Amino acid sequence: MEYSKHRFEFFSDGVMAIIITIIVLEIPLTNNFSFEGITSFLYSIFIFFVSFFIVGSFWNKHHGLIDHAKKITNKIIWKNMIFLFFLALLPIFTKWVLENPDNLIPVLSYDILFILANISFFLIVKEIYREKMLKRNEIDRDNREHPSIHIFSIIITLILIIILAILFPQITIILFIGFPIIFSLMNIFLDKNDPFEKILPNNE
């Protein structure tokens, strides 16, 4: 069964817009205008920036991905639902980090959520790739494995950050907050044209 591509995009775009709105509403206003109070407020805005950047990066990738979809199937819809489920948890984990700025567990959980969102997103990539390959005779093995390599690199990087956090606990928070920013920047700037042209074949 095929579904409307436009309704699929509108629903996903709407969910992401709501997620960003909820995140910004979680920024606590301060009545403490001392240096410490202003610093805490700026930290909250920075955490919002990180979450905003993550959602924006996913929106950019999602938009490019759906352009490659020849049709929207039931499998694609439900894998997209799983992706949006993890992304919709971002406001809660953002609030957790905001309320516990010096605690490692909320930030680590935030990064794990980021990984789960990436894994679920690339399940959509693989499903769209599979649908397109059913129409073709040849399969580029390197391209087929590209999403798995991407996820593997994210997980390895997080493991390295955890090791560094154990060795250098004073920079732990910086490392964990920087982790999703780095990979979001990579997604935006390393794929200068079409981020999926190396993964998905052109429509025929």
Task: Write up what this structure looks like.
- Its main location: membrane.
- It catalyses: K(+)(in) = K(+)(out).
- Belongs to the TMEM175 family.
- With 204 residues, the chain is mainly alpha-helical.
- It has one domain.
- Helix content is 76%, strand content 2%.
- It has helices at residues 5-25, 35-68, 74-88, 90-99, 104-133, 141-167, 172-189, and strands at 2-3, 72-73.
- It has a two-stranded antiparallel ribbon.
- The longest helix has 34 residues, at 35-68.
- It is globular.
- The two termini are 20 Å apart.
Main pleated-sheet profile? 2 strands, antiparallel
For the largest sheet, list the strands in their spatial order: 1-2
Helical fraction: over 70%
Structural class: mainly alpha
Entry keywords:
76% helix, two-stranded antiparallel sheet, mainly alpha
Topology:
Blueprint: E1 2-3, H1 5-25, H2 35-68, E2 72-73, H3 74-88, H4 90-99, H5 104-133, H6 141-167, H7 172-189
Antiparallel strand pairs: 1-2
Helix pairs in contact: 1-2, 1-3, 1-4, 2-4, 2-5, 2-7, 3-5, 4-5, 5-6, 5-7, 6-7
Question: Could you give a short description of this structure?
Answer:
The chain has 204 residues and is mostly helical.
